[in-house]
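Sample A.
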Amino acid sequence: MGRIIKLVVFIAVLFFLWKEVLPRITTHGSETTKPTGTNAGTNCVFEARGASDYWGGTLAHFANPPYDMQAWDDFKSKVDARIGRAQEKCSCEEDSCRLGRQAVEELRGLVTEMDSSIRNGTPPPSDAVQRQERIDNAINDASAAAERQK
């Protein structure tokens, strides 16, 4: 009698595995899942933040005259290249790209005005800090939009 119970339990377990577990295993491998890689909006935010961080993190070297114009030209060239990469990545139509584009355009304007100021010996834009804050806020908004789009 004990052997019969063990055989019935064994058959029940096999039946359960065949009906419940096996279908899940076979369909799990063929399910379409959302890719876990980065999307265009995330790439835009990454490049925009990189350009802004590089600008903000290095600009302090040029806080006071006299300016090393060779160092400034090198720095500005690198900033322009980073802005260019960000503009390429922010060309999509997603909200995160639109917000990223706004930030990058504002950053390009700020860089241009600062370049003019340094080259002409005039004071920097009086609203530079507020503009940098707007840039940072736009990038943060773009990042939030990219997260929502995932």
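Sample B.
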Amino acid sequence: MTYTTDGIMGQVWVAFGQGTGAMRIHQDAALAVREFYSRFITPAVIAGWDKGAVQALERVRAAGRMAASKAAQRGDTVITAEDVTTSAKTVQVVSATEWCPPGPPIALGGPQPQ
């Protein structure tokens, strides 16, 4: 199968939504999902997507769960862009993997951030 940036981004949105469950997401928050994750969809990621998609998407689901939890803890019924960004950054730092690097995107198999 040939993967594309748009196809992978579509999978990211679905995974994030799976993580959020029934919690609504503001349009600005949906755009924040794109802004945060699209920068990681490099040619190397596209080439290796068949090997790492499950792990990458599970981390996106975790960010969705965390964003929904943040909104619920406020007593809110909608996820905000800030919920998305802070949750995605937290999952990124905790994950610290090649598929969810803690810094700027890196090439698969490339040097790990110090």
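B remarks: The first strand starts at residue 24 and ends at 25. The two ends are 34 Å apart (CA to CA).
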